[in-house]
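Running this now, will post back.
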Amino acid sequence: MNKFRISFNSPVVLTFAIICFVSLVMNVFTAGASNIAFFSIYKTSWSDIMMYPRLILHVFGHADWSHFFGNIMLILILGPLLEEKYGSADIIAVIVTTALATGLFNVLIFPNVRLLGASGVVFAFILLSSVTRLTDGTIPLTFILVAVIYIGGEIVNGVMLNDNVSNITHIIGGMVGAVMGFKFGSQKIKRK
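Update: finished.
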């Protein structure tokens, strides 16, 4: 009889999820202090040394368990497939680029708002997954549909709801995923 074993099949995605979990536990035990100190981005002085790591670390922070589970479930569904297709280095690039883009946008446009969470990464993964079958000279219909449904929905939600920050974060994350998906796809086509 064959023995089953557990494999660490997607190191970047699993490590991302573990860091998010640990940061949430820290946040619970510090009554929110760790999120303010490390795992959220907000405008402080550019001379504040912690502002720079928070530009990336904010994607690991979550406000509560519901926020965490909503993001991590989608990351654990999409991430391993994307990491297998594009490789760990490209997935790290997507996560870091999304974190920097959403963090900088928040600091510059919404300086009085504290941003945290992995929803920008989720939307980057959603749009990235829709361009996995990119071939020379074609745009997948699935990409067009996903872009219209998700980004269009976020635009509508941004107009209808007062929570513009998270909607804009989703749109920026989606744009990062789309751009990087086309970049990865065009590099793959050139190699053939």
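Residues 11-191 form a domain with the Rhomboid-like fold fold (CATH 1.20.1540.10). More later if anyone needs it.
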